[in-house]
Amino acid sequence: MKTLLAVAALSFSTLLLPSSTAFAQIEAPSDPLEESTVTIESANGTHQFDIEIADESDEISYGLMNRDSLSPEAGMLFDFGNPREPAMYMKNTLIPLDMLFISSTGSVVMIARNAIPGSLRTISPGTPVKGVLEINGGRAAELGIEPGDTVRHAIFGNDAAE
User: Fold this and answer.
1) Is the dihedral of CA 40, 93, 101, 138 positive or negative?
2) What is the CATH number of domain 33-156?
3) Distance CA 94, CA 102 (A)
4) Three-state DSSP state, 160
5) What domain of life (predicted)?
6) Phi, psi values for residue 55, rounded to 5°
7) What does the alpha-carbon distance between residue 88 and residue 74 come to, in Å, rounded to a whole number?
């Protein structure tokens, strides 16, 4: 009977305890991220954000983790290089975010609004995109930014400065 209980307890603990890789810490990028600006053209006007660009795998993985605030006019632009269907999540992210999924031409394909801090739920547009712009949660609604609006930046080949 003791053996049966020990096996049952071991099996139960194995089910409850995740593998050590599930909680592996992602390291912050060692070098500062490139800084730039993006302009979003919406029905309510033009909105400019000062951004950091995440275009290396470690930068993309780390994103805005462990930050306790973000200026209202700031954000992070994830540049995937070639379009891909991203699987974003909010692990170790302390502030709610709006995620703007952007096509190769700079068109906003989808907006995930007010993503929940710390959530491991996968957020994806269901289609390949060139990039994602993360801004403060609720900011897209506040500014009237909607799918179909245009994000202007050099990575989309539509920067006004070009």
Assistant:
1) negative
2) 2.60.120.1140
3) 23
4) coil
5) Bacteria
6) -130, 0
7) 19
* 139 three-state secondary structure: helix
Instruction: Pick the closest to residue 138 from 76, 92, 72 (CA basis).
Output: 72
User: Three-state secondary structure along 1-23?
Assistant: CHHHHHHHHHHHHHHHCCCHHHH
φ/ψ of residue 101, rounded to 5 = -90, 125
Per the structure block, which two tokens stand in for 81? 């290089």
Longest CA–CA span in the chain (Å) reads 76
The structure tokens 């996968």 sit at: 122
- Condensed to tens digits (0 to 9), the pLDDT of residues 49-73 reads 999 999 999 999 999 999 999 999 9
Residue showing tokens 């999924």: 101
Q: Check pLDDT > 80 for residue 108.
A: yes
**Rounded alpha-carbon distances, angstroms, from residue 78 to 11, 67, 130, 148:** 41, 16, 8, 19
d(CA 6, CA 26) in angstroms, rounded, equals 35
Predicted confidence (pLDDT) per residue in 21-57, tens digit: 344 566 665 677 899 999 999 999 999 999 999 999 9
- Phi first, then psi, for residue 137 (nearest 5°) are -60, 130
